[in-house]
From TrEMBL:
Pathway: One-carbon metabolism; tetrahydrofolate interconversion. Residues 6-120 form the Tetrahydrofolate dehydrogenase/cyclohydrolase catalytic domain. The gene is folD. InterPro entries: Aminoacid_DH-like_N_sf (IPR046346), NAD(P)-bd_dom_sf (IPR036291), THF_DH/CycHdrlase (IPR000672), THF_DH/CycHdrlase_cat_dom (IPR020630), THF_DH/CycHdrlase_CS (IPR020867), THF_DH/CycHdrlase_NAD-bd_dom (IPR020631). PANTHER family: C-1-TETRAHYDROFOLATE SYNTHASE, CYTOPLASMIC, C-1-TETRAHYDROFOLATE SYNTHASE, CYTOPLASMIC-RELATED. This is Bifunctional protein FolD. It catalyses: (6R)-5,10-methylene-5,6,7,8-tetrahydrofolate + NADP(+) = (6R)-5,10-methenyltetrahydrofolate + NADPH; (6R)-5,10-methenyltetrahydrofolate + H2O = (6R)-10-formyltetrahydrofolate + H(+). The keyword Cytoplasm does not apply. Catalyzes the oxidation of 5,10-methylenetetrahydrofolate to 5,10-methenyltetrahydrofolate and then the hydrolysis of 5,10-methenyltetrahydrofolate to 10-formyltetrahydrofolate. Residues 139-280 form the Tetrahydrofolate dehydrogenase/cyclohydrolase NAD(P)-binding domain. The keyword Hydrolase applies.
């Protein structure tokens, strides 16, 4: 058996075409979706991500604003900048590109963004709504993972999902979203005992641990669906948290890296921004 690919790049392209039409429709109603990104400092990876977001906005017809700030900015100054965007009626979505300098509280920044403009889905109010299954902005990477599974028509009801990783950005929310889809969810992390025994119980294995090629064929139940959220650079090449070459012979479905979950993250950010603009309309 060779795993079928869960191709995030293809699904992202399909969704972005639809988003472009949605934006055109909103524009006829005199509403142009607007996304503001605040970039603090000169982190190369952050600059790359922000450029990709800007390009995606441009292609979809979304008004994009980039605000660059020095890493010497104070927390008070950054919060004041966010407040200006909260009040700006032309902006539907606000995100502060992480990571930010250590002298600024990440939580304070997240909580300063108005929940109705929190298109990253990180504000405690939006996280709370996600937990209770209410309509809200969903965190972009977990949202993209669930959309990929649905697009492949993978049945989620009653399936045992094992999530390896418990970050607030991916691990915790992806488990909750799948719980909302009636899956049975187990969380594993760096202190889990007998990790291999746990991963071998998974009908759907989601790996977001940040360690290159950490999961191999011995960790996977035959026929499992494996979603690799990791992005690592080893010897100048990108790879995931899953050893693709060994796992592809055992899994039924598998995401590639690159071209799997990654393209979906920005796409769901655009989706959230358009959703916010619809609410403004």
């Amino acid at each position: 058996m060779t795993a079928l690919l869960l191709n995030g790049k293809e699904l992202a392209a399909k969704k972005r075409e639809q988003l472009k039409k949605d934006v055109e429709h909103l524009t006829t109603k005199n509403v142009v979706p607007g996304l503001a990104v605040i970039l603090v400092g000169e982190d190369p990876a952050s600059q790359t991500y922000v450029k990709a977001k800007q390009k995606a906005c441009e292609q979809a017809g979304i008004h994009s604003v980039l605000i660059k700030k020095s890493d010497t900015i104070t927390e008070e100054e950054l919060l004041a900048e966010i407040e200006l965007l909260n009040q700006d009626k032309s902006i539907d979505g606000i995100l502060v590109q992480l990571p930010i300098p250590k002298h600024i509280s990440e939580q304070a920044v997240i909580e300063k963004i108005a929940p109705e403009k929190d298109v990253d889905g990180f504000h405690p109010i939006n996280i709370g709504k996600m937990m209770t299954g209410e309509d809200t902005f969903l965190p972009c990477t977990p949202y993209g993972v669930v959309e990929m599974l649905k697009e492949a028509e993978i049945d989620l009801v009653g399936k045992h999902v094992v999530v390896v990783g418990r970050s607030n950005i991916v691990g915790k929310p992806v488990g909750q979203l799948l719980l909302n889809e009636h899956a049975t969810v187990t969380y594993c992390h760096s202190r889990t005992k007998n990790l291999r025994e746990m991963t071998n119980l998974a009908d759907i294995l989601i790996v977001a641990i940040g360690r290159p090629n950490f999961i191999n064929a011995e960790d996977v139940k035959p026929g499992a669906v494996v979603v690799d959220v990791g992005i690592n650079r080893v010897d100048g090449k990108l790879c995931g948290d899953v050893d693709f070459d060994s796992v592809k012979e055992k899994a039924s479905y598998l995401t590639p890296v690159p071209g799997g979950v990654g393209p979906m993250t920005i796409t769901m950010l655009l989706e959230n921004t358009v959703q916010s603009a619809r609410k403004r309309l």
